Amino acid sequence: MLTYIQEHDGKWYWYQLDRAVSTTEGLNGRSLRRELDALHAAGLMESQEVAGRLRYFITDNGRQFVATGGNSQQL
């Protein structure tokens, strides 16, 4: 999922992220929320409210994590 956030850094809201990962990674809304919470707690991504909706951004640590082949199963 962090790769999706990186590819669409700051452009996607919940809906777009949910659609992408539900078809490729089999996550539903609840498991997506847990995954996002874990990524956020690890400092790999952050969210910001834009026009009343959250957008998702990858952090520098998240970019490094992806570049070294890390995946969220390791969190």
From TrEMBL:
UniProtKB keywords: Plasmid
Protein name as catalogued: Uncharacterized protein
Annotated organism of origin: Hymenobacter yonginensis
